[in-house]
Amino acid sequence: MGGGGGSFRASGAQQWTLPFNAASASCWIALYAQAHMHRYGTTTEQLAQIAINARKNAALNPNAIYRDPMSLDDYMDARMITTPLRLFDCDVPCDGATAFIISRREQAKDMKQTPVYFEAIGTAMRDRPSWDQLDDLTRIVGADAAEQMWSRTSLTPADVDLAELYDGFSILTLLWMEAMGLCPVGESGAFVEGGERIARDGVLPLNTHGGQLSAGRLHGYGFLHEACVQLRGQGGERQVAKIPSIAAVAAGGGNTCGAMLVTTNE
């Protein structure tokens, strides 16, 4: 293979991706979407709701990258990146930073801001290093991280008021919903259909800052920051109708994932 003025031999997982111009994460994650559609009947229109919901919320976020309205037609008319993922299924690289002050619980009460507490955390890594070689492409390792997280708390998925879930690609958000137990396995597409349930005034407000799809890619910290904003009631125009007290936050996809519950309850 040639490149950079020379040639090289691809080895390991790259021997199956670079020669076919499949080095982008979109190529790997598209397989998750294909598998979910084949196994559970998930549709393109259902995937679209993740992107459309993100854009609606980003329109109310002054720090978001993309704030212009997006319709289903806009989504469907966008160019295909890797079937079935279109342009608006893919997140927005950007420059940005997020900072947190972490302290002991008893000290947090004296801080200027309303304390947000870590209720439970779970992390997981398994399977092969390449994200397209999971044993089950419809089950990200987030399911293991979530299982660990739930084992460390008396709370249940029914207690979650707000979900800030990784959306590097739209299908990952659906898989995180299932991994977290926020909807049954295979039913995330049906859950988001129409967008009402995941809207700011829905039963499970989702990615209220616009997620990585519209607000910009800050990885896990962007979602954790928004969870803190919402739990404190500081969301301004995008604040959910009922100030939440328990938020589920997820980061990563494929074979490396982290999940946490944060709350304003002591």
From TrEMBL:
InterPro entries on file: Thiolase-like (IPR016039), Thiolase_C_2 (IPR055140)
Native organism taxonomy: unclassified sequences, metagenomes, ecological metagenomes
Residue ranges occupied by any Thiolase C-terminal domain in the UniProt entry: 128-255
The name this protein goes by in its record: Unannotated protein
CDD domains: SCP-x_thiolase
Gene Ontology molecular functions: acyltransferase activity
